[in-house]
Amino acid sequence: MAEILDKKVCLNPVAILFDWDGVLVDTKELIAEAYLKTFEAVGMDPLPIDTLHQLPGTSLRDYFPHIFGARAKEAETTFYRHIHENHLSCLKQTEGAGEVLAFLHTLGMPMAVISNKRGDILRKEIKHLGFESFFFEVVGSKDCPEDKPSAVPVRYILSKKKIPLPNDRVWLVGDWLADLECAHRAGVVPVLLNNPKLKRDKKNLFPPKIYLNSCLDLKNFLIQYMKENN
Q1: Ordered DSSP codes for 105-138
Q2: Higher confidence at residue 16 or residue 81?
């Protein structure tokens, strides 16, 4: 069930932006394996994934230099080699993801993907799942001068639809702090999905305004909203 954490939030979006990994697809095991392979290749003890996601920038191209220093490029090559060799064979949707996208598509809802996964790999995964027709734009790492948590990718995406910023009728649905920070920086609504620990974090400077346990919560919430407001 959706939780409205900010009573002033607009509940009638004109566009929805989705993070990819952990939101529309479950790639947790593959990413964990890629990290382990990378640390092993450079002879370092691995850091917990939660720690990695809290490093400066939270995009691989930003935080790998903080971890691997002069070997960051080598580490990035190793990481993406493992992803490239395995990502399509083990790619799976999160619960209800395709159903929710199809539902929103029938409503005529403009949707886009904003991810810190490398753009070429991201687009291959979207094509593999047959999701291309759902999105008016797909932006991955290195497609823009800056990745999340910068607002640059959001500005770029919304410029395609001439949607102004800030805008309290644009939602950004994500599962990590970088998504929330990106939404706050861009002036759109931060929607947190399936991360109860982050939802409860009182020290978070970029709190969510809506919380969803799953993608299906989004569909059910919008159906209920339409029933009550039509």
Answers
A1: HHTT--EEEEEEEEHHHHHHHHHHTT-GGG-SEE
A2: 16
